[in-house]
Structure formats: C-alpha cells, structure tokens
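RETRY 2/3 - previous attempt timed out on the joint model. Re-submitting the same 230-residue input unchanged.
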Amino acid sequence: GAVVSQHPSRVICKSGTSVKIECRSLDFQATTMFWYRQFPKQSLMLMATSNEGSKATYEQGVEKDKFLINHASLTLSTLTVTSAHPEDSSFYICSARDQEGAYSPLHFGNGTRLTVT
Amino acid sequence: DQQVKQNSPSLSVQEGRISILNCDYTNSMFDYFLWYKKYPAEGPTFLISISSIKDKNEDGRFTVFLNKSAKHLSLHIVPSQPGDSAVYFCAATAKEGYQKVTFGTGTKLQVIP
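RETRY 2/3 succeeded.
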C-alpha cells in the first residue's frame, strides 16, 4: 500500500518552456501532497505543500509564480515549472501521507529529473 | 540553518558487519524521527521511525536509537548486506507543524561483499 506515482521520470526541455510534473497517490487519498527538490549531493528541500481544493503553501525563497501547483483532486497534484531556465535543473520529488497525523511517514514518488538546456 | 545533520557523507562496511549511521538535530521541538533509504534516480523509501517517547525501535535488521538529551539518533543495520548500499537520509518533524519534514544531507553507505 501507500504508493505514490510520479510522471515523467525524466524530462529535457529548452530554456523558456514550461514543464508539468504529475504526482498521484494510487491506493489512498491525499488532501495534502508535498513537493521537494534535491540538488546533487544535497538534502531534500521542501518547496511547497499542495492542498486539495485550495492554494498551495510555498516555502521561503520559492517563487510561486515560477512553480505552479495544482491539487485538483484527492489523488493528483501537479507541479508546473514555468519558463524554465538551466538553474531549475534538478530532481523533483513529490510525497504524501496515507494517514493523517504527526506520526506517520511520508511516502515518495520516484522523482522527476528535469534538465533545462 | 541545517537543523538535521548527518556529518558523515559516506560509510563503507564489510558485508555481514554492522552499519551505524548517525544523525544530530538542533531543534528541540522535533519529536518524530524517520530514516529513509534512497537509490540514485529514485524517490526515498521509508525504512523506520521513532517517536520521542521511545529510545529504541527495531524492525528486522534495522534498529533506530534516540538520545534526546544529546539530540542524536542512529540507525543500526545488522548484518549489512550489499543490497543495503544506498544513500540514507535522517528526517525529523514536530507535532506542531508536523506537515513539514526536515531532512539531513544523507550518508552514502557502501556494503562491500
């Protein structure tokens, strides 16, 4: 149980274009999903919290107009990197809990490797 | 401000021996701690967790120890197997604001056959 699916696993795009990444909870409903980013040899950094039916909450320093998040249903959240630039190249990972509450682990998708040329 | 620290970026252990991965934290509000395992180009996989009311939690070959006074936790893997070779992340969260999980920088474990 508690499977999170992320698509695509890898994407290469040209500078200035937009890229959409999908995150689905396959066997549970998630009112909240979390988007992380990982740069090489660094920790996972929380970018934003995606809330079903309402606006996402962004961490300090993350541009909400650049990283558009939509959480239209209880099983799907999308992250759109708008007008991508080479510095946006990174590994993006989504996650969700299958149980509410403080003492339940996050389950992660397999991540999306974004390369902007 | 790195609130969760893994000071050893890498560790090599012989197959069959014990692997000990360490993690320190600075935020005294943290009360739930997790360990994740991550292979390259994949998302992290949850391994084991511990809440602050305990000092030890065991699951098969994996045991996590928590020393609250020292703000230190460790993951013991015994016996280590080549398939355990991966990057291990320590993570922490607080009951207040539990939605946010803070990760350490990871320790790359290599188990040598």
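The radius of gyration of chain B is 13 Å. Closing ticket.
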